[in-house]
Amino acid sequence: MRIAFAAVALFVLAPLVAAQGTKADYERANSVFKWTAGKVTSAKVEALWTPDGTRFWYKNAQKQFVLVDAAKGTREVVTEDKLPKDAKPVNPPPKKKGFGGEEASEVESDDEDAPFVRALQPPGRRGESPDGKLVAFVKDFNVWLRDTGTKQETQLSKDGIDGDSYGRVYWAPDSKKFVAIKTKGGGDRKVTLVESSPKDQLQPKTSTYFYLKPGDAIPLPKPHLFDVGAMKEVPVSDALFPTPWDVSYEHWAPDSKRFYFTYNQRGHTVMRLLAIDAETGKVTAVVSEEPKTFFDYANKLYVNYLDDTNELIWMSERSGWNHLYLVDLKTNAAKPITSGEWVVRGVDRFDAKAREITFRALGVHPGQDPYHVHYCRVKLDGTGFVKLTAGDGTHALEWSPDRNFYIDTYSRVDLPPVAELRRASDGTKVCDLENADAAELLKTGWRFPERFVAKGRDGTTDIHGYLVRPSNFDPKKKYPVIEHIYAGPHDHHVPKRFNPSPSEQRLAELGFIVVKIDGMGTNWRSKAFHDVCWKNLGDSGFPDRIAWIKAAAAKHPELDLSKGVGIYGGSAGGQSSTRALLAFGDFYTVAVSDCGCHDNRVDKIWWNELWMSWPIGPHYAEQSNVTQAHKLKGKLLLLVGELDRNVDPSSTLQVVNALVKADRDFDMLVVPGAGHGTTGNPHVRRREMDYFVRNLLGAEPRAK
């Protein structure tokens, strides 16, 4: 209660005092979640629909019963006895766990083994033929067949050995052929961690875990075709799939004439959909993507076989923007389903009967933030394109049982959630439902983050970000600027949804203006925008970020750049924040870097080979914080958890070694028992705050 009272008192006195890292500032900063909680009325609509999909009801923020007739377009507050008795919630389809969410988490952990998991999973070992007469299985690393009637076993392959064994099996629908994937084993690199202070014993413990790094040998899966009638292998040339990072989306044509699979070439500059002729073993490329940079398989690989029409839905950036294509599997011809200077974010639903796709799109509404998630629908021939959402914000939909209506809820960082009912046939609004109200939150002195757009390094491309001010902000005063950086190429990272307690608010309360920016090299704009990251992670979009901050300071004189700009981040953001002082030390002067992947050769394999490519070239060393450590300017605090299993802790310690050799001053905190991301620890969080207060505010922290 003491902290809560102090916070209230400070809001009353805020205009009279300047934030200088005082005890009150720290208390307010450390209680952001408390003093912002419960002060925004909810616009969430948890609808219970009647089975016919024409009506639903929900409780609003005032605990009133709201009955909506979707067919009539009416909304009214009613008593409980007026509610339809047969109404039930609609179970939304389960969300697929994919890499890179719509928005980065606050910790912004680039959780990074997800796209490589499939290649490392043990394949299936046996498979029964569709007619039930035979079982294909692996014994002694080779493929065998067992007759389910006679139990007789026959060995079909003889080239399988330990470390180069056959695995998962795919039967043709007619049971006359099958494909078995033979995988040559990869490297077995392990990282060793030392737990200095285990809870159950005095002496340290060590542990190891599997962790491939760029350049390591990887598993090499390749398909092999077998003819059951002839009891032999049909030779298949691997000329079109020589160095696989992965083969996936394995699929037999319904007529058993072709076996399809995707081939992702190591280095990720080639992605193909290949077809093996079941009679001859000849391999042809149905689709071949060979960009000059990389194919973003982690986020933009979509494959949907349409067996009834012998077609394929495919996703590609070949036009310079991420779009969907319809491929004729007879002729291999591809036609665009979507097009334009905007991107498809992901497919939500394919209606085979209507031949329609419902998908998420970014940049589809000119004049809005190009990162706003909108929903659209289109037919496979490209006609019937409908924008299902219109409000200026980022959207989420909940559908009626018959999918004739949907509840559209959207928000922005400067707009609390808005809920509407819309008609699926044409996307028109049926009626307004709820509008969240932030009036009570604003009374505390809290301010909406300010969205800001400025031109990037090329003078033409819009760079988007926002500014977060302290709740006791005084426009007549000057505030040092701190950037919260995360430049991971897998996503964009400036949040778009409303949040009453953005993570940047904590530092802002100490007397700073904190900014967050998506520079070039991050995802979900044009292919050219994204390509800036290729073999160039050290860039981190800094030329765009610096231009943006300077433009913001020109518009807002309260931004004080006279002492330089502070910067902080974790994981890839830890790499970038240190890089800021090495390559742009005349602009950035104070950095706190948590669990940074400072050298891309020491980090996990998938992340770095996708963006930095393979084979390993000199650009890896050129952009390493280790090799550039001698260029350090300014104040640097390195943080690392000794048990980080995401980024090898040695990555940070190798930077330390280089700084010591270069005789550069720096600060460091190793956190015993901590994993990936240390700033959740109260002590570490306070140390991070102190570092900026001392070195940017020029004040002695008074947290205690």
Any descriptors?
704 residues; Rossmann fold; alpha+beta; 14 helices; globular; five-stranded antiparallel β-sheet; disordered N terminus; 16% helix; nine-stranded mixed β-sheet; Methanol Dehydrogenase, Chain A
Architecture overview:
This protein is α+β, with helices and mostly antiparallel strands and 704 residues long. Among the domains are: 48-89, no CATH class; 129-290, Methanol Dehydrogenase, Chain A, CATH 2.140.10.30; 447-678, Alpha/Beta hydrolase fold, catalytic domain (Rossmann fold), CATH 3.40.50.1820. Helix content is 16%, strand content 33%. Strands 32, 33, 34, 35, 36, 37, 38, 39 and 40 form a 9-stranded mixed β-sheet that branches. A 5-stranded antiparallel β-sheet has the order 4-3-2-1-5, with no helix packed on it. The longest helix has 16 residues, at 682-697. It is globular and about 85 Å long.
Give a quick summary of the entry.
The chain is α+β, with helices and mostly antiparallel strands. Helix content is 16%, strand content 33%. The strands form 9 sheets. Strands 32, 33, 34, 35, 36, 37, 38, 39 and 40 form a 9-stranded mixed sheet that branches. The protein has a 5-stranded antiparallel sheet with strand order 4-3-2-1-5, with no helix packed on it. The chain has a 4-stranded antiparallel sheet with strand order 6-7-8-9, with no helix packed on it.
